[in-house]
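Item description
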Amino acid sequence: MSDAAGKFAARRAALLARLEPGSVVVLATAPESVRNGDSDYPYRHDSSFYYLTGFPEPESALAMVAASGGQPARAILFCREKNVDREIWDGLRYGPEAAQAEFGVDAAWPIALLDEKMAELLAGAPALYCRLARDKGLDGQLRRWFDTVRARGRTGITAPPALRDLAPLVDEMRVVKDAGEQAIMARAGQISAAAHRRAMRAARAGVFEYALEAELLYEFRRNGAQFPAYTPIVASGANSCILHYNSNDRQTRDGDLVLIDAGCELDGYASDITRTFPVNGRFTAPQRELYEIVLAAQAAAFDAIRPGNTFHAAHDAAVRVLAQGMLDTGLLNRDTAGSLDDVIANKAYTAFYMHGTSHWLGMDVHDTGAYRLTDHPDKPSRPLAEGMVLTVEPGIYVRPAPGVPEQYWNIGIRIEDDVVVAGGAPRVLTGDVPKSVDDIERLMAEES
């Protein structure tokens, strides 16, 4: 078995060890998706399926049986049969025989046999684990499998009496990244950082947002990233105050800030970077003032990311700096908003900062895993542990409004990096993009 196959086998074994003996697991990958006419979107596997198998093809499913009564655990891959004619049109298909050898499963069968084989595996099993109400295709097949097993009830064969949700178990496994995962994410961060530097160098007043997006996508792909991890946000001027803006079709103007939120996906793992910079290469005084507040908020959040500290400690630290900055600049009026503690208690800061500071990052850009201890009655924020990967992305967004100082109108700023929780300070994966005012202006002054 190859090292790669061994890694996936170890994950499957760790999952099965947590289940009741003899329990059955089934998990399908994502279906292909039609874009329009006879054109499909580029195929992207289901993250959890890939996490447990490494198998990249559509029309695939994984079944596993936990060890029981001296019988060892088993992993069975269902996939498309080898088809040389279709390979002429669509490319390589492993087929069951090669898939079993390459991906280290105990058996591999054609996907057409899924109904038949699952009915056999479920006979007498104490429980079936699947992602409840998430896999549309499997949801429709579950009843067929159970009906087939129940039809044999007179022979003493029983269907699983318990149907349990698989998703929380796999989701939690994915929260802590091993050294191999961290290495891929570090490389993804380097590629994305290079793309952001390229876009900064290409920026000029009058350039269209989509032209800067093109610089990002070029750098992603030429360095081996398979996809953008999400639709890039290239937001100039007032668009920078739209959190999920992605039309990317405005022509920039002299004096605009440009907020770029973009990251690549490499070998199934995402990166996520945001930088905000002046399109003409020089911050105005109001832009610089707000920018420095956001940068200080990010630094405060970094200081709060330590093993044992809670996930939400970084957000609380960032909010305290941002709220103080809003009071100092007059974005929030002290006479009406009150003290810093009042602003935080009343969440008055959400007029200009309305999102969280962090999210998990991994195979999905908003990766799996609970943010709170759901088995605790008070559901407190969960403690951080080494190997967790999260974003740190404070911001300030100022839309025109009565009582808001006009010099700050239409300024939207976000600064985002990806970090690994480590023994001391967090390890920043995306630090190759300048983010101090002086460093940004210096980079943008370089010849492109």
